[in-house]
Structures are given as C-alpha cells and as structure tokens.
Amino acid sequence: MDCSLKYNDMDKTKAYGRLMGCKPFDVRKGLSPSRIENSTIEEAGSLSFNYASLPVDDEILDALQALADEQQLIGKYKALLSGEIMNVGEKRLVLHQLTRGRVLEGVSVMADGVEKGAFYEKELSRIKEFSDKVRSGEIKGSTGKEITTVVQIGIGGSDLGPRALCYALNLIGEADGCTKKLNARFLSNVDPDDAANVMEGLDLERTLFILVSKSGTTQETLANRDLVFKVMRDSGIANLVSEKHVVAVTSNTSPLASDSSILEAFYMDDYIGGRYSSTSAVGGVVLSLVYGFDVFRQLLDGAHAEDVVALESNVRKNGVLMDAMIGVFLRNVLGYPYSAVLPYSQELYRIPAHLQQLDMESNGKHVNRNGERLSYKTGPVIFGEPGTNGQHSFYQLLHQGTDIVPMQFIGFREAQGDLDSVSGGSTSHEKLNANLVAQMVAFACGKDDEENPNKAFDGNRPSSVLVADRLTPFALGSILAHFENKVMFQGFVWNINSFDQEGVQLGKILAKKVLAGCEGDGNLEKYSQLLTKKV
Amino acid sequence: MDCSLKYNDMDKTKAYGRLMGCKPFDVRKGLSPSRIENSTIEEAGSLSFNYASLPVDDEILDALQALADEQQLIGKYKALLSGEIMNVGEKRLVLHQLTRGRVLEGVSVMADGVEKGAFYEKELSRIKEFSDKVRSGEIKGSTGKEITTVVQIGIGGSDLGPRALCYALNLIGEADGCTKKLNARFLSNVDPDDAANVMEGLDLERTLFILVSKSGTTQETLANRDLVFKVMRDSGIANLVSEKHVVAVTSNTSPLASDSSILEAFYMDDYIGGRYSSTSAVGGVVLSLVYGFDVFRQLLDGAHAEDVVALESNVRKNGVLMDAMIGVFLRNVLGYPYSAVLPYSQELYRIPAHLQQLDMESNGKHVNRNGERLSYKTGPVIFGEPGTNGQHSFYQLLHQGTDIVPMQFIGFREAQGDLDSVSGGSTSHEKLNANLVAQMVAFACGKDDEENPNKAFDGNRPSSVLVADRLTPFALGSILAHFENKVMFQGFVWNINSFDQEGVQLGKILAKKVLAGCEGDGNLEKYSQLLTKKV
After folding, report:
1. For a designed S-S bond to B291, which of A502, B134, B140, B295 qualifies (C-beta 3.0 to 4.6 A apart)?
2. In angstroms, what separates the C-alpha of A95 from chain B's closest C-alpha?
3. Is the pTM higher than 0.90?
4. Distance in Å, alpha carbon of A436 to nearest chain B alpha carbon
5. Do residue A465 and residue A479 come from a single domain?
6. What amino acid positions of A are annotated as catalytic residues?
7. Which range marks the domain in which residue A508 is found?
8. Is the reported ipTM for this assembly greater than 0.95?
C-alpha cells in the first residue's frame, strides 16, 4: 500500500478554493484558429483530444493541474494498477486495465493466490482457442452444423459495453484482420418480449449462446436462459442438445462455472466491475467469435496504449486527464448537471448508452469513499445520440434552450466502411464531418440576430472533440479506455468509490419482496395492483 | 381567431407567485396505499396516469390548476384544433391532431384552399390502397418479385417517431389485426456507414424504399437516396428499375412530389411539424406497409381518443394536463433540469429517443412566442432506456447521485408477445413488473442505513407511471398522443412556440460553408483540418 496517498474530499484541498474563484473563459470571444491549433493533445495511436471550445484558459488549467496534483491522481492510478484495494466498499482490487496488458512494467498483481496478469492472459488464450475452433467449424452445433450466429445473454455491464463495441465494428474488413463475420444478437431485458424479438428467425442449430453473469445468479439473465432453453425444447428439432449451444462467462466461484448444462466456461473475477468488463472475457468471447480473436487483440492493444499515455501527470500533455479535469470545472464551478456524448459515426450509436452506465453508475454517488456525505456535486447525467441524427432532434435545446449542456463530440477522418459516393459535390462522409465542424463552431460562436431574436444563438456552449483517423478496432479500444480512465480520474478528484454500485441493491430486494407477495408492504401492494388489475 | 385568448409569460401570471411559494410534498413520508389508490387518472382506452410518487399535494394542485386556467391551456388547445396560426414564427397552422380525426366535432379547417381534414383522409385512403396492393403482391418489384422489406430513408422527425412506433409493434399478431409482417429498416444518418449497415444483406428486388422529406431538400436524405441508387446500379441485377422501388412522403409543393424517379408520392404539409408527423403519411406509409393499414388505423384511433380526453379542463380529471402541469412544478419550482423516460417494455426501446426530439426540439427555447427572452426555465433534457436494463446501468445515479432526476415510468399489465415461461416461481413478465413496482417504491421511500451510509437511499425521488393493459396499436397511439399533448400544454404554460425549430438552422448554414471551402472563416478551417489531416 502506498502510504504517501491521501484521500481527502475535493473541498478540503487548497486547490479547490483557487479553482472556485476562476471565471470561465469566453469561448465566443476567444475562439481562434491558433487556439484550435494549440488545444490538441495526442493520445494513443491516431487519437487526439481537442478542447479549444471549452471555457478554460491558462489560469483555470493551472488551477486544475494543482487540483489533480493535490488529489494525487496519477499516484492513485498507479496504486490501482499495482493492486491496491481501490474498491474500498467491497474491499476489492480494480483490475480492468490489466485485462489488456501491464501498464506498469514489472509490476505483478497477486490476489486469491493467483498472479492476475497471468490469469487474464490464460483466459485470453482459451478464448482464442475456442473462438478459432468455432469460426473454423471445428466446433459445431449439436446437429453437426457450423455456428453462424452468437447471442450474448447478459444485462448491464454484460450487455451495454460488449454490444456497443460489437455494433461499432460491423463494417471492418480484411485490412482490419477480419476475414469472416458471424452474426451477433444481444438479449438483456427480463421483459419476455426482448427474448421473443431476439429469438425471431434464429436458426437454433447454428446458434451459440453466451451466458454472461459474474455472480451466476443475475435474475434477468437466468430467466432469459430458461426462456431460450424452452424455445430449444419446443423447437422439435431432432437431436438438438442445448448444452452444446451454450457457453458461460462468469467468475470461477459462481454456480455457472460448474454448471453441467453448458459447453464451456470463461472466467473473469470480482476485480472487474461489470461496466469495466468489456475488455475481459465478457466482451472478449463475443467479439472474438464474431470478428476473430485478432480483432479483439487489436482492441485490447488500443486500450492498453491509452492506459499507458494516461500515466502522464501534466494535464496539458495528457488528454484524458485534461478531459477529466475540465469536466470537474464544468460540473463543480459552472454547475452543469449533464454532459452529451455525440459521436459523428453511426457505428458508435450505442456508445452513449454504454458511457451512460460507465459514468453514471461509477460516479453517481453522494458519499465519499469512507461513506461520508459530500457537499459538492459528483457525476453528471450522460446522454447522447449520433450526429447528424441528433442535429435534427434535441440539438434545438442545446443551441437555444434555457440551460447550457456541455458536449463531447467524437469524429473520424475516414468512414469505417467502403460505401460512399459524391452527391451535390461532396461525399457523404465529407458532409458528415462538415456538419461536425459546423456544429462545434455554431455552439461556440453563436450568431446575433437583433431583428429575429428567435433566430439568435448565444454561443458559448462548451464542447470538446475526440478525433481519430478511422474507427479501427485499435481506435475503438483507445476511445473506450479514454472514457474509463476519465471516469476513474474524476472519481479520484471527488474522493468517491467509482467501483461499487450499492444504489442498485434496494430495487433488487424490493422486487423479490413483490414476487413473494409484497409481505404486507401496502405501497408495494397498491402499485402491484395497478400493474395487474385490468380496467 | 379567438380574441379571448391572452398570451402572457408564465411569470406575469397571478398563479405563478402562488405556485412559487409552494413547498414540495414529502413523498417519503406521505406515500401510502390510499394515496396510490387515489392518484390514478383514466385516459384513453386502458391507459391511465398515476402521480402518487410525485411531490404534490392539494395546495400545489390547486395552484397548478389556477396556472393552467390563467394560461388558458384548454382554450389554446381548442384554438389550435380550430386552425389558428399557433406556429407564430413560421405563420403556420398546427394540425397533427387532425391527421387522426376531428377532435372538435363539426369544426373544419381550411388552408391553402383545401379542407385539411378531408386532405388527410384522402391521403389515408391512398395509403390504404397502396399498402394493400403491395402486401397482397398486386404491386411487385421491378423484376416481378413480391416486396418483403421496406426501408424508410429520413432523418429527425421522418425517422425517430416512425422508427420507434415500428419497433414497438414487432410482436403484435392476428388478434391485433396483423396477419402478415414485412421487414422494416431505417436509414437516417448522412454517415455513409449507416447506409452500408442498412444495405447489408438486403434483397434489392424485394425491397421498397420510402423517401421521407417534407421539403424534399433534406441534405442527409438526398445523399442517402443517391447512395441507395448507386447500390442498385452497382448490383448488376438485370432489369432492376430503381424507380419502381422508391416512393416518397413529402409536401405536395416539394421537388420530390413531381420527381420522375419515384413510383408514388404521399403527402403531408407545412402544418405537420416533423416531430409531430408520426400519425401523418410520414409514419402511415411505413406502418401500413409493415403491419397493414388496419394496424395503423388502430394507432390513429388510440391517438385520437387521447386527443379527445385532453380537452378536459380539470387537472385532476385530465392525466395529460396533470402530467404537464406537475412537469412545470418540477422544472420551475424545484428546478430539475432533466426528466428520465423509463419504459418497462423492450418494445418501446426507441421511444425515449423519439420523446427526446419531441420535447427538447419543441420546448428547448429561450424566447417567448413574440421573440422576447424569458427569465424562467423551459424544456428539460430528456433521456432514458428501457427497464430493467436501466436498473443495471444509470439507476445508480438516480438512486444515490447528488442530484434529483424526475422519472416517467411506463408499464403494461401483459406482454405484447406470447413467449414467456416460469423460472424460479414467476414468469418473466411478472419479474419485469415486480421490478417496476419495486423501483417506484424504492425511489419514493428510500432506505436508511446508519451503519453503512453508502447503502442508504434518501428517497423522495419523484416518479410517475403511465399504465395500459397491453402495448396494442391503440395503446401505442394513446401513449404517443399523451406525450405530444403534454409538450403542447407545457409550451402554452411557458408561452413559447413549441412548433418551430430555428435552433437547427445555424448548423445547416455553417455546414454548407464548410463544404464550400470555409469561405475564409478561420475557425471552420482549423476544425476542418483537424478532421481531415492525418497524424
């Protein structure tokens, strides 16, 4: 344990007072070509972060640097990487970065009598072996047919991240190391209509189900497993053996790990939070099956490279740290309660839903890591849709509403796929990026219109942009890690535990009570009647 | 024109001061079985609205009634229905309710020399005739094959509403009047990767494209049309005639209306805002093709029935009015800047995205209908995901974050589809609803935990619930109209124009400038370089 680390609430630091005294930079007046030029920080691979349209100047950045230093962000990151118990509430290590490689060279992490780096590597090689065999046809379905579709059954972290990443790679090709794609579907909700939709038109003989639950006891996931088994039984397909069509991703102590009704189990552990599990077997099995292990390996490499650049302690040289610290300024000094994530890539259309979980479940806390109530704001509400779609929807409020919503854009210099054509003098991808550029400037600079005040734009709407050459598996991994590490750094600033989720427990307990007949709780009974009694 | 109507800002009313003096009701202390029992308002069909877990008491409701009366909400609704120019900025009538029927008996609406009720009815009968012929196989593709898939090409209101409604009916069956389903896909984003995904695996000979653009000039939609035409040309399919595979939904004055490259055009007009257009031909053509005209007719009937019940002026007897007015209390008295929409139905998974547009584009305004700047807050940020998925994601922040997020639940007494089974003593649908009930009580009542403050829940998190028997086409129409009318009423309270969207214009202008080479705007140039220059 690193005894030099101090865990103080943000408002107990010296830097806090200094920061709270800072006035926001006027972007409308101050945005300039040279500011844009000088506000880019290179991250992993081709990824860079540009903060020119965020309301910060050198004075604010100095104050943010002081706060980052005083809260020992890099020291705490290194402690996490070294295997300290950073999830203090649950007394657990936090090891998701280790699933993609060792960030601190020579540092090995022991837990439960196992060297965890070796443990994750072993699972990786098992995933490679298994996915290779399924994709080559060596492992077939129970009736002898090749597997062409995989269905991931999981909820929360076992669904949102893997699903967003899987969707995000749909148009990669041979140049990306993907010679063949399997179909992918995802089943998450306990609503039986979700299963009915996902099972529609499925060729059961050619389908492999991946059951994902760390504890092996997730109510929704087990209910969906049972529904899938029922559909298999009712299918009337001769010789269909459901056990040959189901693998599990779980912890090695869970009931699923030794379940005889599955073909194979892959392991993660209690040191990987659900929302941080995309680079563990939780995302690895499905992505390796669908796109091939090499693609997943590139994604891990991109995330790892990003984990490495995040070690830099100078805010001005570390894009993630900059993003995190300006986020604190927006939240705690300027008081903005939300942040919009706006990817200009249709491939990333479920990334906002993943980041919503990642950020809101990690940092939506009102007590510090010791359980004491905080007197400042923590994590904001995250929402978003891809551009240009959002432009024709909620951007109206972003431009002209009564509140200011900070925005985080994501853009790429090239499309992922090959299809494009010129229409009206430009390609679709050129139009896409022209819109992104236009929005950043429109939000920053606004437009006066004294004659028609309903056509006036105040400007000074803060935005940043993450840019990469193309949405490759590597870039996708880097973007994922950027946000994971941003959330981690902000949690350190706020002195909260970003790695537990006690807020989900009460609902689970009460739902069980409802299913057991409400046990005399009149409110539960009345609401239950409302949901059962026909009018 | 109804000269008895006065258009005053909310803070100029007498009721406003009274409302601002109201203290919120303590739901944690005050929720009781009798309160739940007495807080249901019946709406259209089986739909009802329950507000027991919202922080209001009789004093507040009286103040809200006074404000609704003073702002003449029902009078303004009737003026709108009667064809007054309610979209004052664009000098247009607002007629989306008329697309589903006449709410005020005997009132006909003339515009452009046409009786608009008859106009929409005529389009309906044309949609019926055309969709019947396609579904029966009388109208075939150009190579003589039956149409099995329809692809809607549109963005914003031409996409979000129709898409959400189409997805929401996927499991209806013969008992709902649906004897056959065509496949549906939606193409919206100018990102060429969207087109590449949507075109993947498409059988062009069996596909009908629906090009939806009121103006006929929407950049994204025309670019996607050109991409689709390119794919058709490149397909090498003999005798494939693209004109036979494309219909349009547009205004009858648009260039598309007379375009020779389309098979047929269906019309809406300038009195139907994009985000309100789901019940016009914009939603009607695709829904009638996919599910049959009878299903679309039921949806219209459900929306119409809801439009009728919204005429009631007593807040306590009008669920939509109650929902709208309590929303004003949450926004302007309690200051909550967002509202989460949480449907406990996987079928409704894109409804939050539609409501995000509907609400934020309508009411994200900072000037009143005369263009004067307002000194109070208007529309909130809307976001959401289906339960139970959200429970394993951002509900952590909703339960234990530092801010309070009002929630709007939606639930159904039955599943839409047939698939379900008992697992661990209950069906999946019972589990779904048990979770909904549990969440409402957990958010309202919280839970103390003095030993483990990180496991304590403050409670008093406001929520309401819309409940219907089952997600039928009729119920779906009612739910759609509930939200449309809620947004309209809130716009009347705030004295804004909920029917224009000037905030989307600046981005369009600047995007054109970027495509034209930035015209010397240094900021546009620098950001463009960032998006084009490879590292």
Report:
1. B295
2. 20
3. yes
4. 8
5. yes
6. 361, 392, 508
7. 501-535
8. yes
